[in-house]
Q: What sequence folds into this?
């Protein structure tokens, strides 16, 4: 008898191991009807259009969509695929630690985006970094710097943004970089877990083979109205 070991990431999406409702259900998206308005801003690296990385991640996303339980997830558009480098502010999270200390918590989002963009104009270019997949999970991919040096550079970017913008979230030091494919609407039954573990392992291996280092655009400060589209307002070029 083969014993299957489930990853901790998969078990977070299991009904029996995590019976709590999905975190953003009802605020970021509905069970039926798609994404809800949830305006904010963020700093992300998009996938380079037409690159082998984009193709590999689209193929990976298709494997998720082919799962029998795919209707239990709400998928983001391919055009929105990105890796968040630094989380900005968002309408649904107006509290200290997630908002500049010197700005009232009731400031309009559009005003906040303009203010933060002005602060980021003072950002000097920084070293480039390489990103690779760590593992696949039901909502998408866990990623990180390809080497220890890359990981240090990514965190240096985060520290610089935190200093300029005036806040550090509680998970600032141990933020888990990721690429989101989908959000859970309903958690997985136990009988689905072996199928999902096999699919996630396959996706991870495929991406490591086809896109060992991700082709990403330079970080960009973006505004969004919901999770469908991230509009680039300010691009931070890498040091030459």
A:
């Amino acid at each position: 008898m083969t014993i299957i070991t489930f990853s901790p990431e998969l078990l977070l999406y299991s009904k029996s191991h995590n019976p709590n409702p999905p975190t953003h259900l009802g605020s970021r998206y509905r069970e039926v009807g798609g994404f809800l308005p949830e305006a904010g801003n963020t700093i992300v690296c998009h996938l380079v259009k037409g690159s082998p990385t984009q193709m590999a991640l689209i193929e990976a996303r298709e494997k998720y969509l082919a799962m029998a339980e795919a209707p239990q997830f709400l998928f983001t558009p391919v055009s929105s695929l990105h890796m968040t480098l630094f989380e900005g502010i968002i309408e649904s999270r107006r509290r200290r630690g997630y908002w500049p200390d010197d700005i009232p918590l009731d400031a309009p989002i559009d005003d906040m985006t303009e203010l933060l963009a002005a602060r980021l104009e003072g950002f000097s270019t920084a070293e480039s970094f390489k990103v690779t997949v760590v593992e696949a999970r039901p909502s998408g991919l866990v990623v990180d710097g390809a080497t220890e040096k890359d990981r240090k550079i990514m965190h240096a970017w985060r520290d610089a943004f935190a200093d300029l913008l005036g806040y550090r979230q509680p998970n600032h030091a141990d933020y888990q970089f990721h690429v989101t494919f989908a959000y859970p609407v309903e958690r997985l039954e136990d009988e689905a877990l072996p199928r999902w573990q096999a699919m996630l392992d396959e996706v991870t291996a495929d991406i490591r083979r086809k896109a060992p280092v991700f082709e990403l655009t330079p970080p960009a400060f973006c505004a969004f109205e919901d999770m469908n589209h991230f509009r680039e307002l300010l691009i931070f070029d890498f040091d030459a």
User: Anything to note?
Assistant: DSSP finds five helices and nine strands in the chain.
